[in-house]
Amino acid sequence: MAEPDPPPPNPKKRKSKSNSNSKSSTIFSSTTIRHFPFTYFHLVLVSASALTMAATAKLPPIDLLTVRTHLTSALTRFLGTTGAAIPVDILRVEGRDAWVRVPYQDGRAVTEALAGWMGNEVAWKVRESGCWVGGLVGSNGHDLFDD
Question: Is the pLDDT of residue 69 over 60?
Answer without folding.
Answer: yes
